[in-house]
Amino acid sequence: MPELATSVDRLLNLVHHWVETRWSAPSGAGTRAEMVHTLVQQLADLGAEAEQRPSRPVPRLHHMVLPDQIRVMTDDLLAANPSANLLTRATAEVDRVRAALS
C-alpha cells in the first residue's frame, strides 16, 4: 500500500498547482488533462476489479478537480483491500503518468 500512496503523492505534488494552460498542454495523443483523466478511470477500474463489480465511467469534470479525483479513486482502491497484483498495476500506471508529465 505505501508504494501506491507514495506514487500518488508524487504525482499530486507535480500537478496540484497547475493552471488551465498547463492542463491543456499537449501530451502524447491528447492533453495532459486527458492523460490524467485516463489515469483516474484506470484507478476506478482497478477499484471495481478489487471489489469484484463492473466498472463505471468516471465523469469528466473540470481540469482543476483532477487531483481530487485521483485522491478519491486511490482512496477507494485502497479501501477495497486490493491484491498485491492490483496495487502493483496501479502504482505502475501512476508512475508512468507522472514520468510522462515531468
What features would you describe in this structure?
The chain is mostly helical. Helices cover 70% and strands 4% of the residues. It contains five helices and two strands, in the order ααββααα. Strands 1-2 form a two-stranded antiparallel sheet. Helix 1 runs parallel beside helix 5 (84-101) and helix 3 packs antiparallel against helix 5. The longest helix is centred in the middle third of the chain and has 20 residues, at 32-51. The model has no long low-confidence stretch (mean pLDDT 94).
Helicity level: 55-70%
Largest sheet: 2 strands, antiparallel
Intertermini distance: 23 Å
Proportion in β-strands: under 5%
Identify the quaternary structure here: single chain
Order of helices and strands: HHEEHHH
Q: How would you state the average pLDDT, rounded? A: 94
- Spatial order of the strands forming the largest sheet: 1-2
Q: Provide the structure class.
A: mainly alpha
Q: Shape, please? A: globular
By DSSP, the count of extended strands is 2
Roughly how many Å is the radius of gyration?
13 Å
Per DSSP, the total helix count is: 5
Q: Uncertain spans, ≥5 residues at pLDDT below 50? A: none
